[in-house]
Amino acid sequence: MTKSWHIVRVTAGREYAVALSLVGHGIETFCPMQILGSVVRGQFREDYRALFTTYLFARWQTDDPHQWHLIMDTSGVIEILGGSDPKIIKPGVVEDWIERADQRGVIEDLAQTLADLRRGYKLYDEVRLTRGLYNAITGIVVWIDDTTQRVGVKISMLGRIGVIVRKTTECELLVPAPGTTLSRQGHKGGGRRGRRARAEAYAQYWRKILPTI
Questions:
Q1: How far is CA 196 from CA 32, 109, 187, 202, 203, in A?
Q2: Which of 96, 106, 195 is nearest to 146 (CA)?
Q3: What average pLDDT does the chain have?
Q4: Are 10 and 77 in contact (CB under 8 A)?
Q5: pTM for this structure?
Q6: Domain span including residue 187
Q7: CB atoms < 10 A from the CB of 183, how many?
């Protein structure tokens, strides 16, 4: 019997745990992961978190009511997208992600693309520094390290060129993305409209890479 991949919405922060529970029930799952860096008491550590917050992928025979109820009765599961008529992910999509993932389930290239959308800018974008000594100075992003949440911005000042290191949250895209209109007040410090635009861009990309039949 043919099995298909489906999208399961679960409790935030329990994506991987729920995936393990489903595996224990005989359901094949895939939970893409990302690595986020943090500093605790002066020590750097890496945290593994779900790439798609509150979502994971499960593979079962679509018209099997027993497996459908088995998944819905699993602790941490909120819903199956499509309800009693589960949406099916196009064949090959999840399989391609599995091939791109390492042994820990981390998809680094996809995580980087999503990180660009969350951040609001990417490598070689022109940005404005929003805090610190060089507040309001503009420059070009020359390197990004999301693990340490630091970014290097090349600036020109008094005839000299240098690289300023800042937190990723202390820069903003100088020119809004096409189709995005921000007032000066809304654009200052990121602004509500700027955050809204980035959130929508992230959501649109998320929906784009989850094609369904």
A1: 25, 24, 11, 10, 10
A2: 106
A3: 82
A4: yes
A5: 0.64
A6: 117-205
A7: 9
Q: Give 181 or 73, the one with higher predicted confidence.
A: 73
Question: Given phi > 0 = left and psi -120 to 50 = alpha, else beta, which region is 170?
Answer: alpha
Distance CA 52, CA 56 (A): 7
Strand runs (DSSP E) across 41-169, as ranges? 43-50, 55-60, 77-80, 126-129, 138-145, 150-157, 160-167
**CB distance 12 to 53 below 8 Å:** yes
Residue pair 62/187 in contact by the 8 Å Cβ criterion: no
Which residue from 119, 101, 88, 126 is spatially nearest to 51, judged by alpha carbons?
A: 101
163: in domain: yes
Angle, CA of 92, 5 and 22, to the nearest 5°: 135
Residue 45 near residue 38, CB atoms below 8 Å? yes
The CA-based diameter of the chain, rounded to the nearest angstrom, is 71
Q: Please, which pLDDT band fits residue 200 given cuts at 50, 70 and 90?
A: confident
**46 belongs to a structural domain:** yes
* Integer angstrom CA distances of residue 193 from 73, 117, 185, 188, 205: 40, 15, 9, 10, 18
Give yes or no: residues 59 and 13 share one domain. Answer: yes
